[in-house]
Design a protein that fits this description.
Number of strands: 11
Number of helices: 4
Shape: globular
Largest sheet: 11 strands, antiparallel
Distance between the termini: 38 Å
Helix content: 10-25%
Structural class: alpha+beta
Length: 242
């Protein structure tokens, strides 16, 4: 079993949202030939949803050619782990793990991973991270902003697309050079956000870590950013804003 790979010609310096969208597109293409699974999902009104992301960044992501690779690595009772790398000339510049769950859209509940899914995806038992830590909210308040959910942020499942959470996070850091030094990012999606709605984002500084919460009337997501004081070379992601 080989990892699925796709070539990308990058025409701009990437934001974290760009990077995750590349990974998600690569995953979609890897799953495109799973016709039996697609029919099973349609017949049973099921949908994949991302529960967690963890991303680690190693090198400059600039305008050139890259290879994005993905592979499923692990099933537990209700979760599927999918790994990603972005590579150039054999060197890994970023890696990520996405944890997916399957949702019964009619009854709005998680289901166990069906056997038909396990039979259709051949695992490569290579994990990017030994563990993905639980998100915690602690520290002193660093930034607080409120946002209105826009219609264009709603995905095909009828709730806010997972990269929109990162857009809100970018807005809190947009005037701070820290965002150019992002090293590790993680987020746990806890509850859907629908349109129309108001969102509150709080970022907490805990030592060298920045924890954040995104909520409407309840916690909808929690996560963490870790930055690095890069002393050699260019900043990693936000070299130029879009």
């Amino acid at each position: 079993m080989q990892k699925y790979k796709k070539h990308y010609k990058i025409e701009k310096n990437l934001s974290l949202r760009d990077l995750l969208e590349i990974f998600m597109q690569t995953s979609l293409e890897d799953s495109a030939d799973k016709i039996i699974v697609k029919k099973y999902f349609k017949d049973n009104n099921l949908s994949w949803m991302i529960y967690k992301w963890k991303v680690q960044i190693y090198g400059n992501i600039t305008k050139t050619d890259y290879i994005s690779k993905t592979w499923p690595s692990y099933f537990d009772k209700i979760s599927t782990y999918r790994e990603f790398t972005l590579e150039r000339d054999g060197h890994i510049l970023a890696k990520a793990t996405a944890i997916y769950v399957i949702v019964d859209m009619k009854n709005k509940k998680l289901i166990e991973i069906p056997q038909i899914v396990k039979d259709s995806y051949q695992l490569i038992q290579e994990r990017n991270f030994e563990k993905i830590e639980k998100a915690s909210i602690k520290g002193d308040i660093y930034c607080e902003k409120n946002f209105s959910v826009e219609r264009e942020q709603i995905d095909l499942n009828g709730h806010v697309h997972n990269t929109s959470y990162i857009f809100w996070l970018e807005k809190c850091f947009e005037n701070n050079s820290l965002i150019k030094k992002l090293k590790v990012f993680s987020i746990t999606y806890m509850k859907e956000i629908h349109y129309p709605n108001k969102v509150n984002l709080l970022i907490y500084k805990d030592g060298e870590n920045y924890n954040f919460s995104i909520k409407t009337n309840d916690f909808n997501a929690k996560g963490k950013c870790i930055f690095n004081d890069w002393k050699v070379g260019l900043p990693l992601l936000w070299l130029n804003k879009k």
